[in-house]
């Protein structure tokens, strides 16, 4: 039995359908990421799981119990928002103790112990006497996380928790959140529009678009075997071509550039139109002789060995096995 079951959920706001028959099963201890473009229904789904929003139709089961009508306050979850939502007039320690004090069953001794335990877990114990304004964004978000887990919730909801942070801090916090999640074994659902975040953190990704789930799978499955043209285009980069009813996709890193056609591969002669250095990789843009555009990702070390420039004539080669194809009906 799944720990959390979302069954045929529909949510309509006025005339706007935010969720259209969404079903999903989450196992205990899983880290699930809900990924999709702005307005696809991610936050609405998270809010329904939290009980902060009532569905128009469908049910939510937690541990096999129908919780669809259960008030948010009666559901045992912790939540972390993009905006941290800390009390500004309370220290780090007071922010955490405040939530614990609402739980009358937890003794004072245990509250102090738990506060210390979670602050050590997020590496903030030495900052416990500081106020939110004295902390960096990353430290504020770690405080919010410590506060959420201090209540020992059954599940953890993360709503774009890293979006407000700069790239370095974001990457460090990703690892920290994953480590804590695995250590506690806590079922976690994170909403994000950042594919890299979903790919690096989640056990399984739920890709949403236009109020429906497009695909559910491990990061590897979603990347290697996207089930629709939308997923193919949304996750990673994809060269996409239309031919009649069919759509073909080829990942930029699957293409080999050469001065002559490579035998046994699909060969598309063309011209280099731009070269973009991206650090470890370099993206090369080209125009094939059939006027279609193409982009190729190469390891930067290889590029310096190959030595080509804008305007050079080249051949773009790839194998048939690396082509993904879809029927046009699936395009959005
Ligand atoms: P974002 O990444 O921009 O936060 P999202 O994927 O989380 O987007 P939702 O916030 O779930 O999307 O919204 C889904 C749709 O439902 C949108 O079209 C939105 O305008 C609409 N919607 C959400 N909340 C409400 C509301 N309270 N009243 C009316 N419409 C709403």
From TrEMBL:
**What InterPro entries would the database entry show?**
AAA+_ATPase, ABC_SmlMolc_Importer, ABC_transporter-like_ATP-bd, Mo/tungstate-bd_C_term_dom, P-loop_NTPase, Transp-assoc_OB_typ2
Q: Which keywords label this protein?
A: ATP-binding, Cell inner membrane, Cell membrane, Membrane, Nucleotide-binding, Translocase, Transport
Residues covered by the ABC transporter domain: 4-235
**Which Gene3D superfamilies does the UniProt entry name for this protein?**
P-loop containing nucleotide triphosphate hydrolases
Q: Which Gene Ontology CC terms are recorded? A: ATP-binding cassette (ABC) transporter complex
Q: Name one GO molecular function term.
A: ATP hydrolysis activity
EC numbers listed for it are 7.6.2.9
Protein origin, superkingdom: Bacteria
EC class of this enzyme? Answer: translocase
Recorded hits in SUPFAM superfamilies, A to Z, give: MOP-like, P-loop containing nucleoside triphosphate hydrolases
Q: What is the name of this protein? A: ABC-type quaternary amine transporter
* Organism of origin: Peptacetobacter hominis
């Amino acid at each position: 039995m799944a720990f959390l079951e979302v069954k045929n959920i529909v949510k309509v706001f006025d005339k706007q359908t935010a969720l259209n028959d969404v079903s999903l099963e989450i196992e205990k201890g899983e880290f699930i990421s809900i990924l999709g473009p702005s307005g696809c229904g991610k936050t609405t789904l998270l809010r329904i799981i939290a009980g902060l929003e009532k569905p128009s139709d469908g049910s939510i089961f937690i541990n096999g119990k129908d919780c669809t009508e259960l008030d948010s306050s009666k559901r045992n979850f912790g939540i972390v928002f993009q905006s941290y939502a800390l009390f500004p007039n309370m220290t780090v320690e007071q922010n955490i103790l405040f939530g614990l004090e609402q739980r009358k069953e937890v003794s004072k001794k245990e509250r102090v112990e738990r506060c210390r335990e979670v602050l050590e877990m997020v590496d903030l114990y030495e900052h416990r006497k500081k106020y939110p304004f004295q902390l960096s964004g990353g430290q504020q978000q770690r405080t919010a996380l410590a506060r959420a887990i201090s209540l020992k919730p059954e599940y953890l909801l993360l709503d774009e928790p890293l979006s407000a942070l700069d790239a370095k801090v974001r990457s460090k916090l990703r690892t920290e959140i994953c480590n804590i999640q695995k250590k506690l074994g806590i079922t976690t659902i994170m909403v994000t529009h950042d594919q890299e975040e979903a790919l690096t953190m989640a056990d399984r990704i739920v890709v949403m678009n236009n109020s429906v789930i497009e695909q559910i799978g491990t990061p590897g499955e979603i990347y290697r075997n996207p089930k629709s043209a939308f997923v193919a285009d949304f996750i990673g980069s994809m060269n996409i071509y239309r031919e009649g009813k069919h759509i073909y996709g080829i990942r930029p890193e699957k293409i080999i550039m050469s001065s002559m056609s490579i035998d046994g591969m699909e060969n598309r002669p063309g011209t280099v139109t731009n070269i973009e250095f991206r650090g470890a990789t370099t993206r090369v843009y080209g125009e094939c002789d059939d006027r279609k555009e193409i982009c190729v990702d190469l390891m930067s070390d290889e590029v310096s060995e190959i030595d080509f420039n804008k305007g050079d004539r080249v051949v773009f080669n790839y194998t048939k096995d690396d082509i993904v194809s879809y029927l046009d009906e699936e395009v959005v």
